[in-house]
Amino acid sequence: MSLEEFNALPREDAISIVKPALDVARWIEAIVDSRPFGSVDEITAAAAVVAGPFSEAEIDGALAHHPRIGEQPKGATAEAAHSRSEQAGVDASAAAALAEGNRAYEAKFDRVYLVRAAGRSADDILALLQTRLGNTPEQELVVIEQQLREIAALRLATALQS
């Protein structure tokens, strides 16, 4: 879909386009209600800042749509398709290390490890995981929100390329 088409959509239709990028209602509404955007760069910049900060409940709700890194997302949803594409750089040889890291992360933070995988190698993702295991829960919430926003910006840019 082109940006021009997105800008012209009725509100509810635009919401359905934005929701797979990041399922946080306040964020979706802020993006949709900020239309029209002059460029894809403008909408992705907005994705990084609107409706912030997210509450812990909003973060947990958004994380519910993200599979564990290294696991193949199941289903035919837009979110699953995005995840499959974003995790393309994570190969099977890293699966055991990622599974172990995911268990350690979930034991410490009681939520799925989320990282913007697009453009990162499995080694990069594992290194970030090890670094983030040193965070406090409060520090980690800030990092998770940043990662959610980076993922959302990439997803919006992908959806709005014509």
TrEMBL record:
Residues 68-88 are annotated as: Disordered. It holds the Pfam family OHCU_decarbox. Its EC number is 4.1.1.97. Keywords: Decarboxylase, Lyase, Purine metabolism. Pathway: Purine metabolism; urate degradation; (S)-allantoin from urate: step 3/3. One of its GO terms (molecular function) is 2-oxo-4-hydroxy-4-carboxy-5-ureidoimidazoline decarboxylase activity. GO terms for biological process: purine nucleobase metabolic process; urate catabolic process. Coiled coil: none annotated. The keyword Transit peptide does not apply. The keyword Cell inner membrane does not apply. It is an enzyme of class 4 (lyase). It catalyses: 5-hydroxy-2-oxo-4-ureido-2,5-dihydro-1H-imidazole-5-carboxylate + H(+) = (S)-allantoin + CO2. It comes from the Bacteria. This is 2-oxo-4-hydroxy-4-carboxy-5-ureidoimidazoline decarboxylase. It comes from Microbacterium bovistercoris. The lineage of its organism: Bacteria, Bacillati, Actinomycetota, Actinomycetes, Micrococcales. The gene is uraD.
